[in-house]
């Protein structure tokens, strides 16, 4: 009975292990990548300004070298180890292409307070594990420890881009994309809008123009926008946003080569989300900055699929993108870029350890359980076999007697009786 109890106990342990949550055995569930692909901020910790910057140079790196750097932020890995979750993402999204394996994944898990970087097999010689470890310690760890995730992610993304031979900073063009005739935009806003359009137009082929006026000069705002589009020399992939301050109105116009994808409906969504709340509150700088970031984001997320040549011809026909609206939208938060998003600080000596591998632990428990079951079963079978065998008494070798049959020169073991011959 004792051995039966042990056997039943081990069977129960084995069944319990086998019924553990599925994620202990199967690959963890991972989300689909966003349209941006290069930056997937599922945890909501990266501002749109930083995201656009990273996407821009991620696209450039891929177009120039074929390599891809992908950033993913999640709330948690759902119990999976960082390594397992990263590998599943890497394979599911085919980062760096499944055949060339020229990709790098940077994974940040916010609630797990951990991060992981994974390079494809095609980059393991040029971007070794020791190089990645040093890069994380210098670029990510200080900001990550302070929970300044956007700053750390941007620095690390840039370091990865440069380590793969890509461009992270570059001389910008001097084309003017802002005409603040109404004088409502501070210099820092005008500078940001000009720099962003000069930077992103080389990647997307699209620039965003902003014009403010106090009076459209006797024309309707739509007529003024048409005329201004032509006089600015905007191209067939550009967008013009005109703000009529005194008229409390705005109008948007896009070039003919993008009006089938950047539809009136999409433009209306951008305006209602980013521009209208700020415009209604007369926060014009915040409104145009938020709208610009959304327009840049739209073009950047499509740049790698259909890259357009920069510097298009001017003076082409355009179509109306969206009608004016003054109805206040819901108070939706918008991303307003700071004047300086860099974070100072020295690195700290902290080594991030990967989370325990639950799958490996479960496999070990299962193996030990099976070995124990086999051992107990073998022992139990042996004892049962011994009990069921016929009882045979044995004596020590030195006390055994051996009798030989009569007629062989020895004595018979029989006494008395009668012989054949009398």
TrEMBL record:
<dbReference type="Pfam" id="PF04536">
    <property type="entry name" value="TPM_phosphatase"/>
</dbReference>
<feature type="domain" description="TPM">
    <location>
        <begin position="39"/>
        <end position="161"/>
    </location>
</feature>
<keyword id="KW-1133">Transmembrane helix</keyword>
<keyword id="KW-0472">Membrane</keyword>
<keyword id="KW-0812">Transmembrane</keyword>
<feature type="region of interest" description="Disordered">
    <location>
        <begin position="385"/>
        <end position="422"/>
    </location>
</feature>
<protein>
    <recommendedName>
        <fullName>TPM domain-containing protein</fullName>
    </recommendedName>
</protein>
<feature type="domain" description="TPM">
    <location>
        <begin position="178"/>
        <end position="295"/>
    </location>
</feature>
<feature type="transmembrane region" description="Helical">
    <location>
        <begin position="360"/>
        <end position="382"/>
    </location>
</feature>
<dbReference type="InterPro" id="IPR007621">
    <property type="entry name" value="TPM_dom"/>
</dbReference>
